[in-house]
């Protein structure tokens, strides 16, 4: 009899896997954290801080950090490879003496992350004929910007309809359409931060984003040159609650399916691994969610899917060149070189020197940044095509005889990375706070966090940090038996009741007007 029973078990196991129930037993955990970037690691630390130690972190890459990512590029005079940041590079908004501080600034200081003040007034202006001084246009832009930010404040406080940043600038008498030098200045002031043109950017939330970081803390941006990489601080924080080779951190793990409900979340990875969690926190980028890189079951309800689809995932591409250090052709005491192309807006517009005191002096490295459509074009090109275009621009700017061939050349392709599909999010015009809350809200026991779910700090490291902390705090509340669902809005009527600005987000129009501006 025992023999017959043994034979019967095989077809039964096959039948159950055909019917879709997993043949393999799922590993059980209280909280599954999907992604080991700033939001994911901060969520895990928040759980730890609340004495919840039963969690796992599932991460696609072979290390933590996510979009805070570096690589080696070129080498110094001693042949030692140099480290440059592919993703986040600045600590944006530092802190006020005795006042509020950016958490990223505090963490960078805690781990001695080497950084240098980015001097945005250290800039020279160029066009296709070479150096041309059009820096008076910065003042014109800034005058228009004052009108624009006040208008955004009025729209917010009077609950008027949002409009695009272009409409705001026009109210300030800034009309760059027919002038490529004005376009270059506008790119430097707007697109370089938001990775999108003013036409497609929300006026109100663009200004809220700027005010909360730069008027709450400080207007300073410090550029990280640490040869251990910017993510040193995140690894340091992780090491306070994860042991070496901690089995709760699963690197090289690609999540493929997430099945959520009101009772739990089941996750599978590309190797057939299966995890059964009481709660999950999804920190995948907006780009990953938009590109259906991971399959969610059941399919997202319309309010959630619309929330995901209505936001924009920007691409910001840094293109690095190293020249022989003894042949550096740009003035070494200047940090930035702005280029106004005669035909295309945003065509290799901002060159940034690393061979400058306080940066990577003596390195011969300079890099140029493109965003949005120019990023898509560049990221679809070969290195050779891009290198030739950049060199042609540099030779127009500095003189054909002055610019040698680079000894190293490299750039990341953010729009094509299956674990990010872009660089960071932007708030498009016409999208309300309610729609944003739908992007942010939980679905049963599946919670969402990341830079894009922050209404104030989207696009910034601080957004990912606050959101990772906040989602984990919600999960802690649930695990302690006092669970409250996050609000979502369905249907949407295209306006946000004024009281929601402060109830949900704690910021008001007048909160951040006092820091010396
Ligand atoms: C080029 C660039 C420049 C930037 N510059 C700045 C700056 O100067 N200052 C600043 O403050 N911010 C900057 N940012 C933004 C900042 O990097 C982000 O806001 C922040 O790193 C986002 O953290 P996150 O945890 O929300 O997302 P992520 O870092 O994307 O973390 C999500 C994690 O999920 C993982 N993942 C994705 N898919 C899967 C899957 N299927 N299975 C398992 N794991 C998966 C990813 O590998 C990633 O580690 C920049 C970003 C880029 C790309
Ligand atoms: C966890 O607690 C430590 C020690 O108090 C603190 O430094 C850290 O910021 C906390 N982490 C989060 C995400 O709140
Ligand atoms: C992850 O993959 C990389 C590259 O394939 C490998 O070097 C590394 O050892 C792996 N790490 C883990 C923890 O599996
Ligand atoms: C460029 O012109 C402005 C006045 O518009 C002047 O203040 C500035 O010094 C000039 N810059 C250089 C480098 O000559
Ligand atoms: C932003 O700050 C400026 C300057 O303090 C203020 O005039 C404006 O109302 C603020 N706008 C918003 C949307 O917070
Ligand atoms: C961690 O794992 C690596 C690779 O498997 C091993 O060499 C190392 O000794 C381990 N460290 C500890 C502290 O267990
Ligand atoms: C994972 O998702 C894919 C695509 O939706 C689907 O075909 C597959 O059956 C799912 N697998 C599991 C284990 O749920
Ligand atoms: C910080 O970076 C600067 C510039 O690259 C370098 O000179 C300095 O030695 C670095 N400091 C530390 C502590 O690494």
From TrEMBL:
Transmembrane segments: none
Name of the molecule in the record: Amine oxidase
InterPro entries attached to this UniProt entry: Amino_oxidase (IPR002937), FAD/NAD-bd_sf (IPR036188), Flavin_amine_oxidase (IPR001613), Flavin_monoamine_oxidase (IPR050281)
Needed cofactors: FAD
EC number: 1.4.3.-
Entry binding sites for FAD: 255
A Gene Ontology BP annotation from the UniProt entry: polyamine catabolic process
Family: Belongs to the flavin monoamine oxidase family.
Keywords of this entry: FAD, Flavoprotein, Oxidoreductase, Signal
Molecular function via GO: oxidoreductase activity
Species in which this protein is naturally found: Talaromyces stipitatus (strain ATCC 10500 / CBS 375.48 / QM 6759 / NRRL 1006) (Penicillium stipitatum)
Pfam families cross-referenced by the UniProt entry: Amino_oxidase (PF01593)
Boundaries of every Amine oxidase domain copy: 38-475
Coiled coil: none
Domain of life where this protein originates: Eukaryota
Secretion signal span: 1-20
